[in-house]
Amino acid sequence: LWLETNGAVIPGTPEFTTRIGSLNHSYSDFIAKGIKTTGISMDKLAIGPVSLGGYYSLDSDSNLDRGAYVKVKPMTGIEAQATVVKADEQLAYALSTTVQPLTGAEVSGTYAAVHEEADAYRVNAKYQVLEGLEVRAGYQDIPTEFNAAHRNTDPDDDNNVNPGTGFTVGATANQFGFEVAADYVDYENAVDYSIARTVSVAGLDFNTKLAGNYDFAAEEAEKLEATVGYNAPSGLELSAGYDFIEKQPKISAGLELQF
Predict the structure, then answer these.
(1) How far apart are CA 222 and CA 14, in angstroms?
(2) Which of 159, 154, 223, 161 is nearest to 190 (CA)?
(3) N or C terminus: which one in the chain shows less Cβ crowding within 10 Å?
(4) Closest C-alpha to 129, from 119, 137, 118
(5) What angle do CA 162, 129, 77 make, to 5 degrees?
(6) Burial degree of 122 (CB within 10 A; 0-12, 13-18, 19+)
(7) 3-state class of 67 per DSSP?
(8) 50 with 79: CB under 8 angstroms?
(9) Cβ-Cβ contacts under 8 Å for 72 (sequence gap 6 or more)
(10) What is the pLDDT of residues 97-116, one digit of tens each?
(11) For the residues 222-239, what does the mean pLDDT come to?
(12) Cα Rg for the chain, rounded, in angstroms?
């Protein structure tokens, strides 16, 4: 339960978003992802090329949990952000930058550390070689000792901050209505791949996808799933699929409501 408002405190001053109650903020995958606490937050306060936000709250054990970020966009194609979070007694900070040196190219990097503990970093680059074809590469050094309280640990999120040191390479191609993607992760010695396409039947659009993961060290597929999803105009989301590894079907439904 929460109360959220958007506007300026004094007419003519910058507007920002204020939230009181249950919080759910994400400032950085390394130290501030999905912060679910209870308190007050201020977000999206823009002053020229600078925007900032922060929160002050209590976690489920009534420990103090607070943090803030400052983002700067000095010019087109350049962005930098500094984030600081103190969850109970753990102090963590992160610095990230994104640069677009030329059309179709982007280079991003993040350095993060937990005070008096471990640090970690990641650098990624992607380039739109031609219409419908993107290539990408990256390198990271995230030791097992790096354990920021609010780091992204979701294994299904490509931006997760789980331990590993090494490079990644990948590509995505969009041709003839198909999207084909593949990414090799050096420190896992595995490749993720997927083929997706939107199919129209009787005026309805269905999102179809076949996705898998192959472990070269174990010489076996760890994941292979086929799914079909439909998003209704009413906000209803339906999905049905089959897990070829576990040999069992999967069905899910959801409803998005806006007030």
Answers:
(1) 50
(2) 223
(3) C
(4) 137
(5) 70
(6) buried
(7) strand
(8) no
(9) 49, 50, 79, 80, 81
(10) 999 999 999 999 999 999 99
(11) 91
(12) 21
Which amino acid, 230? Y
Six-digit token string for 52: 């900032």
DSSP 182-216: EEEETTTTEEEEEEEEEEEETTEEEEEEEEEEEET
In three-state secondary structure terms, 37 is: coil
CA distances from residue 142 to 115, 165, 166 in whole angstroms, order as listed: 15, 6, 9
Does the predicted TM-score (pTM) go above 0.90? no
Q: How far apart are CA 68 and CA 53, in angstroms?
A: 6
Contact 206, 224 (CB under 8 A): no
Query: What is the dihedral sign for C-alpha 150, 213, 187, 123?
Result: negative
Q: What is the DSSP string of 115-166?
A: TTS-EEEEEEEEEEEETTEEEEEEEEEE-TT---TT----TTSTT---SEEE
* CA gap 124, 140 in Å, rounded: 9
As to burial, measured by CB atoms within 10 angstroms (0-12 exposed, 13-18 middle, 19+ buried), residue 27 is: buried
Is the Cβ–Cβ distance between 28 and 81 less than 8 Å? yes
C-alpha torsion 109→114→115→118, nearest 10: -90
Per-residue pLDDT tens digits for 9-39? 788 888 999 999 999 999 999 999 999 999 9
Tokens of 183: 């990414």
Count the helices and strands in the chain (H runs, E runs): 0, 17
Which amino acid is it at 128?
A: Q
| SS3 label, residue 69 | strand
From CA 185, how far away is CA 192, in angstroms rounded? 8
How far is the C-alpha of 188 from the C-alpha of 167, rounded, in Å? 10
